[in-house]
Amino acid sequence: MTRRKDDLDKTIEKILKEDPSFQEKLNEADRAWDIAFQIYDLRKKAGLTQTDLAKLVGTRQSNIARIEDADYTGYTLKTLEKVTRALKAKLEIKIVPLDSYKDLFMTG
């Protein structure tokens, strides 16, 4: 069953027609949301508060809150490594050839 397009879908399509570079902004936002929600979910599954995780990482609770904010993209690789290690998880980074990247994210 195919989902019907809603107003948001139609608005995004219109914006992309007017400014194709907007797709990269959407992709960046998607990656930020993905990272934030993965960290949040792993923290919750581990039964940790933001303060608990901050102590394990060696930082402040406000920094963990910032990392879990889907609008935040200022984290470093080192920070993500510390957080994932504290959550007993593995950080994976994947470099994808541009054609494959377009196939994954720019289908319509």
Chain-wise SSE layout:
Layout (H helix, E strand, L loop, with lengths): L6 H12 L3 H24 L4 H8 L3 H7 L9 H10 L11 H8 L3
Helix pairs in contact: 3-4, 3-5
Which short descriptors sum up this protein?
single chain, 108 residues, mainly alpha, 434 Repressor (Amino-terminal Domain), 6 helices, elongated
Describe this structure in words.
- This protein has helices spanning 7-18, 22-45, 50-57, 61-67, 77-86, 98-105.
- By secondary structure, it is mainly alpha-helical.
- The protein has one domain: 434 Repressor (Amino-terminal Domain) (Orthogonal Bundle).
- The two termini are 17 Å apart.
- 8% of the residues are buried.
Backbone shape: elongated
CATH fold title: 434 Repressor (Amino-terminal Domain)
Please describe the biggest sheet, giving its number of strands, its sense, and whether it closes into a barrel.
Answer: none
Could you give the order of the helices and strands? Answer: HHHHHH
- CATH architectural grouping: Orthogonal Bundle
Summarize the structure.
By secondary structure, this protein is an all-alpha fold. The protein has helices at 7-18, 22-45, 50-57, 61-67, 77-86, 98-105.
